[in-house]
């Protein structure tokens, strides 16, 4: 099922539930009830709880967005390191140069074509990708420079392999959900409390009040969906992409 369809159904369900409760609750209110009798303290508490929950939602959205940005940055670092390896081996003999570049190309092709989908499904890195990176490391480290010129290029190449390995590890740590379960518990309970408090204000069945109640519930549902969508930087609709690899290795990724 499409994530946007899930979002639409979630917002429609939240709106329908709130409006249904409003209508049913309104039928139980006697005709002589005066909505102006709502105590001021209830209005104050409703406002304060709404403000506190809005701050919590803002912090949660900022947190998952920052995690997504960090995940995208690790992808850029990994792609740049592999590109540097492929470019700096130019000083090596052709046979060695071609072997290292072939290993780099195999790794990049696998990451873009297969491992990206694997991360989205499993929330972890694949063993095949790790093996391909190890092959790149062996190709770089096993070669013994034949002269000082090649020797000057050797250590920077080894360093770039380490950078790629570190970035890959960070990418693996970001492959799954980043939001702890206890935070989700607080967000959902807070949403129920915040939406539930609007019923203390004696909402009537006027078009204006029903519209505001519906829009408020839809907004809460949308923000929770936004947090959920950002929560897995590599696994959902608005996720980190393999664009750094495709930009630096266009000949492999088309």
TrEMBL record:
Originating organism: Streptomyces exfoliatus (Streptomyces hydrogenans)
TM annotation in the entry: 44-65, 181-204, 210-228
Keywords assigned by UniProt, alphabetized: Membrane, Transmembrane, Transmembrane helix
InterPro entries linked to this entry: DUF4239
Protein name (database record): DUF4239 domain-containing protein
């Amino acid at each position: 099922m499409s994530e946007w369809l899930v979002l639409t159904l979630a917002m429609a369900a939240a709106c329908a539930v709130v409006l249904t409760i409003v209508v049913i609750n309104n039928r139980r209110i006697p005709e002589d009830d005066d909505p102006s009798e709502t105590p001021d303290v209830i209005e104050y508490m409703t406002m304060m709880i709404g403000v506190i929950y809005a701050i919590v939602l803002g912090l949660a959205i900022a947190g998952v967005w920052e995690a997504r940005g960090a995940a995208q940055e690790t992808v850029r670092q990994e792609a740049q390191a592999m590109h540097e390896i492929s470019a700096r081996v130019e000083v090596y003999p052709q046979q060695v140069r071609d072997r290292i570049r072939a290993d780099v190309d195999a790794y990049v092709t696998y990451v873009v074509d297969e491992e990206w989908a694997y991360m989205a499904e499993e929330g972890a890195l694949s063993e095949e990708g790790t093996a391909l990176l190890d092959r790149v490391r062996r190709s770089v480290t096993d070669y013994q420079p034949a002269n000082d010129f090649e020797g000057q290029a050797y250590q920077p190449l080894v360093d770039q392999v380490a950078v790629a390995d570190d970035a890959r590890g960070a990418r693996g740590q970001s492959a799954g959900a980043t939001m702890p379960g206890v935070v989700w518990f607080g967000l959902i309970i807070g949403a129920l409390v915040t939406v539930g408090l609007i019923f203390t204000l004696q909402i009537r069945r006027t078009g204006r009040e029903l519209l505001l109640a519906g829009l408020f519930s839809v907004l809460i549902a949308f923000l929770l969906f936004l947090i959920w969508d950002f929560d897995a930087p590599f696994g959902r609709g608005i996720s980190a992409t393999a664009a750094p690899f495709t930009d630096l290795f266009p000949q492999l990724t088309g």
